Amino acid sequence: MNSRYLYHATAFLVVSIWGSTFVFTKLLLLAGLTPAQIFALRFIIAYLMLLVFCLWRGIRWMADSWKDELLMAGLGISGGSLYFLAENGAMNYTTTTNTSLIVCLCPLFASALISLFYKSQRLNRTQTFGTLMAAAGVVVVVMNGHFVLHLSPKGDALAFVACLCWAVYSLLMIPANARYDTVFITRKVFFYGLLSMIPYFILRPGLNTHLLLGQPALLWTLLFLGCVASTLCFLAWNWAMKKLGAVVVTNYVYFNPVVTILFAWLLLSESITVYFLLGTLLILVGMYLSDRR
């Protein structure tokens, strides 16, 4: 029982860190880096860290078969390059509210997708009610009393693509976790995430690393995103998913907007509203119910 609490605490900690990264990413964007460049630099740092660790520990280089290697490539694309490009691209065409709302509802898509392939992962009535309640809580938190959506077909479509990418990533993690250890999988995610970005950088070359020279604060920001938010968080997330299951861990994405608003309240003095408190309560109760067997 204590171990199970540890797995849940790990998933919550990862979501908390991911929910806070918007501030650090914003600093790099304001410095002149593009979303694709930030993603590439983050994953380069993360991959090099894991590469050194794997060389030291003598961890395998390749999967057992070409099919499993394709599985790793699918993880790198769905959870790496395509997800980040779609999410960041959505921000250019639609509102932050729309993007947050759509992307943070990915547990619904993940649960539905996984249940199509794995009967053992299907939710019972209580769990289904719980995840729907948590989803409703996300809507209340994100909308914050202003229940008006400004539709933008292109931007909203990209946000849905990002949402589906994370659902596919959660699905593919089930067979990957059954056959390989967490460090190997995570290193492959970073490798194929970077590899699949090559066509993008052929069309738009350059990483603009010169913008970081002479600015220690920006360099530390990038190192945080690469070392902590990428390396450690992906390792911890994949490990928790291995222990608790893809559906249970993916449901923690519902906490993302809650953590983001709390972070803004602490650092940016933004106000906490009654809608935030109500939505957070719905998410907490929904998460409790969705984890009950």
Q: Strand-and-helix sequence, N→C?
A: HHHHHHHHHHHHH
Count the DSSP helices: 13
DSSP summary, beta strand count: 0
Termini separation (Å)?
Answer: 14 Å
Which class of secondary structure composition applies to the elements?
mainly alpha
Rg from Cα:
19 Å
General description of the model:
The structure is a single chain. The chain is an all-alpha fold. Helix content is 78%, strand content 0%. It contains 13 helices and no strands. The protein has helices spanning 2-30, 35-57, 66-91, 96-103, 106-117, 125-143, 153-179, 182-195, 198-203, 216-244, 246-250, 256-268, 274-290. Helix 2 (35-57) runs antiparallel to helix 8 (182-195). The longest helix is centred in the N-terminal third of the chain and has 29 residues, at 2-30. The protein is globular. The model has no long low-confidence stretch (mean pLDDT 83).
Briefly, what is this?
The protein has 293 residues and is mainly alpha-helical. The protein contains 13 helices and no strands.
Itemize the secondary structure elements and their pairings.
Layout: H1 2-30, H2 35-57, H3 66-91, H4 96-103, H5 106-117, H6 125-143, H7 153-179, H8 182-195, H9 198-203, H10 216-244, H11 246-250, H12 256-268, H13 274-290
